[in-house]
Design goal:
The complex is a heterodimer of chains A (533) and B (299). Chain A is α+β, with helices and mostly antiparallel strands. Chain A is 28% helix and 23% strand. Chain A folds into 2 domains: 26-248 and 512-531, Periplasmic binding protein-like II (D-Maltodextrin-Binding Protein, domain 2, 3-Layer(aba) Sandwich); 275-505, Dipeptide-binding Protein, domain 3 (Roll). The longest helix of chain A is centred in the N-terminal third of the chain and has 17 residues, at 4-20. The radius of gyration of chain A is 25 Å and the shape is globular. Chain B has a two-stranded antiparallel sheet. In chain B, a hairpin with a 5-residue loop joins β1 (69-70) and β2. Classes of the chains: A alpha+beta (533), B mainly alpha (299).
C-alpha cells in the first residue's frame, strides 16, 4: 500500500525529475545507434546520420536529398572529367584549426586506410584519380571517366582535419604516402571527433548514450539546442513508453501499430514522410533447380517471365499498404519513389489481378502451381515479417503454395548472400538520392570490377539494361542522364526482374512544443528538431 | 452385486486412487476443463470454421477485426481476427494442439530418456553414474529458458526443433528423480534376492526397479507438462519457436502484443486466457495426483 504521504513524495520526485530536463537539452530515443563515431568506418544509416552533426561534407543534402552547399560554396564540372569545388572560407574545426583544401585531400587519403571497416566509403572515392589544391580554397578533382555522381558522392563523406605533418600530403589513388593513420578508437573516445559541424561530441557510451554539445563557433546558423542526448532504445515498445513518460523528447520509428494511439494523445505529435527506401521481392534468375521451389520437376519457374508477371499480379499492394502498414507506405511502381532523380512517370503500379495471374501460371506450364519458400528478415524493415506472410497468403491463393522463412537480419542477409533463397524480400534505400543507386545494386549484372550487381542476389542479367546504365553513369548532362535512367528502369520493370512492393514512410513522434521535418533519407537529426514557434 | 466383490474392488489401488482424487472438487474441475480442452484441440479440424494454417483460407483484408465481426467471406469471427486475417477462435484451437502436443510429447520423451539414464546410473554406479550425474548437475545449473534459447538459435525454427530443445532441458529432472528412487529401492531385499537368483540385468531393471520408481516420476511429469507448455509459449513469444505461418499460443500472444497499446486487445488476450486456463487445469490435476500418489501423505 502506498500511503497518501507516499503519493505526495512520489509526485515531488516526479516534479524534480521533470525540472531537471531544462529547455536547452534535447533528448532523442533512437531505434538504432551508430556503430562508431569515426565518419569513415561503417557506411551505415545511423552512422551517417550521426556523422552529419559532427563532421560536414563538401556538399550537404536537404530533407528531400537535394544537394546544397556545405563546406563547398559552389562546384562545377570544368570538363567531363574535371570538377572544381570552391571551398567556404573562415570555417574552423572544433579544435580551432582552419578548414582548407588540404583537409579534403587528407580525408580522401584516409578513407581507404580505415582498419577493419565493415562497409567502406571507398565506393565514393575510387573514381577519383587526382585531387589538387589550386589554392587553399579551390579544390580540383579528376576522374578517369566521366563521373556525374561525384557531387553526390562528395555529399556522403565527412571531412576530418589534416594533422600538422600531413598538410602537404599528395593524393594518390594507389595509396597516399603516410604511415600513422588515425584509428577508429580515437574517434570513438572523442580524441579525434573533430569536425566542422554544428555539434561537438561530448561523450559516446556505446549502448547507453551519445551526448553532443552546441558548437558555438559554427560558421552557419547556430544549433537550436545546447545539449543533445541520444539514447539507443532498440525495442519499439520501450521507446514509445519512454516518449509517453517524458524521458525523451523525440523518437524515431514509432511502430505503425502504435500510431493511432500516439496521434490521439494531446501531448504528442507525429510526422511522417516518404522515404527513399523501396521494399522489393527478388527472384532467383540463375540457379536450376532453385532452392525452396518444389513441384516443378527441377525447373526454376522464375526463369519464365510469365511466372514473374503472375507473381506480381497476384500481390495486392494496396491491401498490404492499407492493412499491414496502416496507410504509412505508398504502393511502388519502380525502385525509386516519385520526385527522385530518375523516377519514370510512365510506369504504373501493377494492378491486382489474381485471375490473370492464374492464367499466366497455366500458360507457363504450372496450372497446379508449385511450392515456394519466401525468405525475409524479421527485424530489418517496417513490419517485414507481416508483409512476407501477406505475400505468402496472396501467392497461395493463385496456387503457389508459399511458406515464409523469417530470420533475424544478420542470419537472413548471410543466407541470402549465399543464394539460399529462390524468392526473398528486402529493401533498398537510395543513399545517393537518384535511380542509379538501386539499378546498379539490384538489377545490373554482377560485376565486381565495375561495382555492379552488389546486391543482385537473384543474379538477374540483361545486357541492354547494363548498357543503358553504364551510359547513364558516364553522362554528365543531367537531362540526358535522367532519360537514360528512366529507360533502364522501364526495362527492369517490364521484364519483372524484381517486384517493387511499396515505398516505406518514416515516422517520428515527439512531445508538443518541438517540430521535426521528415527526411527522405530516414535520418534523425538534432539539427532538424526545432522549438515550435 | 454381492458386498464382497465391492469390497474387493474398493481395495484395488487404482480404485483407491480415483476415489481419493475425486475427493478434491478443484481437481475434478481441473480434470473436466482439461478433458474439454483436450477434446477441443483433438477435434479442432472438424469444429473450427477456418484452417488458420492454410494461407489460401486467410484474407488480409479481414485483418484486425474486433470480436463478433463478419468477414468478407461471410464468416463471423467470434473472437476477432489477427493482423493476417486469421480467425482467432480457430487459431487458438489449432495453437492449443501445438502447445499440448509439444508439451506432452517432449515430457514423454524426456521421461523415457531421463528415467532410463537415471535407472542405469543407479544400478551400475561407478564411472557411468558419475558421468551421467555430473551432466545432470551441469544442465540443472543453467536456467531452462537459456539452454532452450541457445539450442533454438543454433537449430532454427520448427515444431520438431522446439521438441528437441524441450527434451534437452527436461530429461535431467527425471534422471535425478529416478536415480534417487532407484538407489533407495536397489538397497532393498527383493532386489538383492533377484540378484542372487542371477536374473539378467535387464529383468531386474525393468521388472523390479522401474515399477517401484514410477510414482515420483509421474508426479514430476505432471508438473513438467505444464512447465513445458509454458516454456514453448515463452520461446514462441520470443520468436524462436514455431514457424510464423503456423502460430502456437505463445506466438499468437506475441503477434497481438504490438497491438495492445492501440486497443486491439483480442489478438493477445484470448490466446493468453487459453494458455492460462490450460496450465492451471493441468496444475490442479497434477497437484492432486502428487497428493494421492505420495505414500507419506496418505491418511
Amino acid at each position: 500500500m502506498v500511503t497518501r504521504n507516499g503519493w505526495l513524495a512520489l509526485a515531488a520526485v516526479g516534479a524534480m525529475m521533470a525540472g531537471a530536463a531544462d529547455a536547452q537539452t534535447l533528448r532523442i530515443g533512437l531505434s538504432s545507434e551508430p556503430s562508431a563515431i569515426d565518419p569513415h568506418y561503417h557506411n551505415l544509416g545511423p552512422n551517417n546520420a550521426m556523422r552529419k552533426h559532427i563532421f560536414e561534407g563538401l556538399i550537404g543534402q536537404d530533407e528531400n536529398q537535394r544537394l546544397k552547399p556545405e563546406l563547398a560554396v559552389s562546384w562545377q564540372a570544368l570538363d567531363d572529367t574535371t570538377w572544381e569545388f570552391r571551398l567556404r572560407e573562415g570555417v574552423v574545426f572544433h579544435d580551432g584549426s582552419a578548414f582548407t583544401a588540404a583537409d579534403v585531400i587528407w580525408t580522401l587519403c584516409r578513407i581507404p586506410n580505415v582498419q577493419d571497416s565493415p562497409s567502406s566509403f571507398t565506393i565514393y572515392t575510387r573514381s577519383i584519380v587526382a585531387a589538387e589544391a589550386k589554392d587553399p580554397y579551390t579544390l580540383i578533382l579528376r576522374t578517369a571517366k566521366p563521373h556525374p555522381l561525384l557531387p553526390v558522392e562528395m555529399s556522403l563523406i565527412g571531412i576530418i582535419p589534416a594533422p600538422a605533418d600531413a598538410e602537404d600530403l599528395a593524393y594518390d589513388p594507389e595509396g597516399c604516402d603516410y604511415a600513422d593513420w588515425p584509428s577508429t578508437e580515437d574517434f570513438n573516445s572523442g580524441k579525434l571527433a573533430i569536425g566542422t559541424g554544428p555539434y561537438k561530441l561530448e561523450e559516446f557510451v556505446k549502448g547507453d548514450r551519445l551526448v553532443l554539445v552546441r558548437n558555438e563557433d559554427y560558421w552557419g546558423e547556430k544549433a537550436a539546442w545546447e545539449r543533445v542526448i541520444f539514447r539507443p532504445i532498440t525495442s519499439a515498445a520501450p521507446r514509445v513508453a519512454a516518449l509517453l513518460a517524458g524521458d525523451v523528447d523525440l523518437i524515431d520509428n514509432p511502430p505503425v501499430q502504435d500510431l493511432p494511439r500516439l496521434k490521439a494523445d494531446p501531448d504528442i505529435e507525429v510526422v511522417s514522410g516518404l522515404s527513399n527506401r523501396v521494399i522489393y521481392l527478388h527472384f532467383d534468375h540463375f540457379q536450376e533447380p532453385t532452392p525452396g521451389v518444389q513441384g516443378t520437376g527441377g525447373k526454376n519457374p522464375f526463369k519464365d517471365r510469365r511466372v514473374r508477371e503472375a507473381v506480381s499480379k497476384a500481390i495486392n499492394r494496396a491491401a498490404i499498404v492499407e492493412r499491414i502498414m496502416g496507410g504509412l507506405a505508398v504502393p511502388a511502381s519502380q525502385l525509386v519513389p516519385p520526385g527522385m532523380f530518375g523516377y519514370n512517370p510512365e510506369l504504373q503500379v501493377e494492378p491486382y489481378d489474381p485471375e490473370r495471374a492464374k492464367e499466366l501460371l497455366a500458360e507457363a506450364g504450372y496450372p497446379e502451381g508449385f511450392e515456394l519458400v519466401l525468405g525475409t528478415p524479421n527485424d530489418r524493415y517496417i513490419n517485414d515479417e507481416k508483409i512476407a506472410q501477406a505475400v505468402a497468403q496472396m501467392l497461395t491463393r493463385i496456387g503457389i503454395r508459399t511458406t515464409v522463412d523469417a530470420s533475424t537480419k544478420s542470419v537472413f542477409f548471410r543466407r541470402r548472400n549465399n543464394y539460399e533463397f529462390s524468392f526473398y524480400m528486402a529493401g533498398w534505400g537510395s543513399g545517393t538520392g537518384e535511380a542509379s543507386s538501386p539499378l546498379r545494386a539490384l538489377v545490373a549484372t554482377q560485376d565486381k570490377a565495375k561495382g555492379f550487381g552488389g546486391t543482385n542476389r537473384g543474379r538477374y542479367s540483361n545486357p541492354e539494361l547494363d548498357r543503358l546504365l553504364e551510359q547513364a553513369l558516364s553522362t554528365v548532362d543531367d537531362a540526358k542522364r535522367e532519360a537514360l535512367l528512366q529507360e533502364a528502369m522501364a526495362i527492369a520493370m517490364r521484364d519483372y526482374a524484381i517486384l517493387p512492393l511499396h515505398y516505406e514512410m518514416t515516422s517520428w513522434a515527439f512531445r508538443k512544443g518541438i517540430s521535426y521535418t521528415p527526411r527522405m533519407d530516414q535520418y534523425t537529426l538534432a539539427t532538424g528538431v526545432r522549438p515550435a514557434p | 452385486m454381492s458386498g464382497l466383490s465391492v469390497e474387493a474392488r474398493a481395495e484395488s489401488p487404482l480404485r483407491r486412487l480415483v476415489a481419493e482424487f475425486v475427493d478434491s472438487p478443484s481437481a475434478v474441475a481441473g480434470a473436466v476443463v482439461l478433458v474439454l480442452i483436450l477434446a477441443a484441440a483433438l477435434f479442432a479440424p472438424w469444429i473450427t470454421p477456418q484452417n488458420p494454417y492454410d494461407l489460401a483460407q486467410l484474407d488480409i483484408l479481414d485483418g484486425n477485426l474486433p470480436p463478433g465481426s463478419a468477414g468478407l467471406s461471410g464468416l463471423t469471427y467470434w473472437l476477432g481476427t489477427d493482423d493476417q486475417g486469421r480467425d482467432m477462435l480457430s487459431a487458438i484451437l489449432y495453437g492449443l494442439r501445438i502447445s499440448l502436443a509439444v508439451g506432452a510429447g517432449s515430457t514423454l520423451i524426456a521421461l523415457v530418456v531421463g528415467s532410463a539414464l537415471g535407472l542405469a546410473a543407479a544400478y551400475y554406479g561407478g564411472r557411468f553414474e558419475g558421468l551421467v550425474m555430473r551432466i545432470v548437475d551441469l544442465q540443472l545449473s543453467f536456467p531452462a529458458i537459456l539452454v532452450a534459447l541457445i539450442l533454438l538459435a543454433i537449430l532454427g525454427r520448427g515444431v520438431d526443433k522446439v521438441l528437441i530443445a524441450l527434451v534437452t532441458v527436461q530429461w535431467a529432472y527425471y534422471a535425478r528423480t529416478v536415480r534417487g528412487a532407484a538407489l533407495v529401492e536397489g538397497a532393498k531385499e527383493y532386489v538383492e534376492a533377484a540378484r542372487c537368483l542371477a536374473l539378467p540385468d535387464r529383468r531386474i531393471l525393468f521388472r523390479h526397479l522401474l515399477p517401484n520408481c514410477l510414482p515420483p516420476v509421474i508426479v514430476v511429469a505432471t508438473v513438467q507438462v505444464a512447465n513445458a507448455i509454458a516454456l514453448e509459449a515463452t520461446l514462441s513469444f520470443l520468436g524462436v519457436g514455431v514457424p510464423i505461418t503456423e502460430p502456437s499460443l505463445g506466438l499468437l500472444i506475441a503477434n497481438g502484443y504490438e497491438y495492445l497499446l492501440s486497443g486491439q486487445y483480442w489478438i493477445s488476450f484470448f490466446p493468453g486466457v487459453a494458455l492460462v486456463v490450460t496450465i492451471v487445469a493441468i496444475n490442479l490435476v497434477g497437484d492432486r495426483l502428487r497428493d494421492v500418489l505420495n505414500p507419506r501423505l496418505q491418511r
